[in-house]
Amino acid sequence: MLRSPAQRRGRGTALRAAAAAAATTLLLGACGSEEEAASSAEEPSDQSSESAPAEGPRLAVTYQDGVAVLDGESLEVVEEFATEEFTRLNAVGDGQHLLLTTSAGFQVLDAVAPDLTDRVFEADAAGHVVRHADRTVLFDDGTGQTTVFESDALADSPGELPETITWQAPEAHHGVSIVLEDGTLVTTVGDEESRSGAVALRRDGEEWTEVASSEECPAIHGEGTAAGEAVVFGCEDGALLYRDGAFEKLQAPDEFGRMGNAYVSETSPLVVGDYNTDPDAEGYLLDSVALIDTEAGTLEPVSLPDGVEYTWRGIVRGPDDMAYLLGTDGAIHVLDPATGELGDSYPVVEPWEGPEDWQNPHPALSVDGDTAYVADPANRQVHAVDLVTGEVTATSPTMSAEPNEMAVAVG
């Protein structure tokens, strides 16, 4: 669902031009939005190693030209920072840092300080970020380079970037990589025009040796790791599964059965994927899910009830390894990943329509344990929902702009 490398580089060039005029603001994290943001005249101090632990979780929320750090319990805004027009967010996995994807690369946001630091993992077109096995893995769509670092190392190297290892793909493409517990790198294969599959590699000194590969995943996109380190990628005709050192194609029953995102729990072998059977569909609303059993090696599409549609931002995994789907009816629906059946429904926001562009703000979910955070662009708010009871436990003050992407500083 992301833009192609060529599109992202074109947009990145434009943003770099804009960023050059305000380099200090963008890279040093000055004050927030002009209207309602909390302001600060001081330059960021990059206090990562000295930050006192936050009393509770921290949630970061992007909006046009800015990013806000919220207290994860009260949803009060702790601090806001100016950014580029559209940025993305991903947690590092150390309980403190997130990465903001900008035209310069992956910029480090300390959610505890809070501080939008001047530390940047440079990238031509910053893409996917994956956390697994205490490592954080970055993919640069503009060059095809994978960068890997120990998740906790970011907090241990204040003012600097941690040591990294890299893998250079033969050609640049919109891709994703993951490193497993034994050090195996599983990464996508493609070029600027198309993507075809994945390869598994092991590192020996400075060299990488191929373990397995597959060319059976056209338009490969997204990644999720289920129990037993079963890695699932989406394809336009099903999914690609990597486990126990080998790839296995999970064929969709439809001629076009595209899965682009995998929603996983690392304690469950069951995966929920988004699913689309119409290559010419307009908009981003979906009304089916793909249910994958990584132990049985099966993929089954399931249609949702009438009136329940969602976007790729609207599914998370939560308590009891269930899936939680935010529908266009404004409710969070509990979805059983074994059957695709919907159980309890928790009304949260007003009914909404799908976005015209995937980047446009629209209701979305992020999760931290039993708590789901719901972006409510229509009211410029964020809501916290207890996924066990369905109770809305907190609502943020009205924000200066429509909330877009969200991420929790999980550890």
Give an account of the 3D structure.
With 411 residues, the protein is mainly beta. The protein is built from two helices and 33 strands. Strands 3-2-1-33 form a four-stranded antiparallel beta sheet, with no helix packed on it. It has a four-stranded antiparallel beta sheet with strand order 4-5-6-7, with no helix packed on it. Strands 8-9-10-11 form a four-stranded antiparallel beta sheet, with no helix packed on it. The radius of gyration is 20 Å and the shape is globular. The model is unreliable at 1-50 (pLDDT under 50).
Intertermini distance: 27 Å
Helix content: under 10%
Please compute the radius of gyration using only Cα atoms.
20 Å
What's the tally of helices? 2
Strand order of the largest sheet: 3-2-1-33
Largest sheet: 4 strands, antiparallel
Low-confidence stretches: 1-50
Q: Which structural category fits the helices and strands?
A: mainly beta
**What is the general shape?**
globular
Task: Write down the overall mean pLDDT.
Answer: 89
Fraction in beta strands: 35-45%
Number of strands: 33
Short structural summary:
The chain has 411 residues and is mainly beta. It has 2 helices and 33 strands.
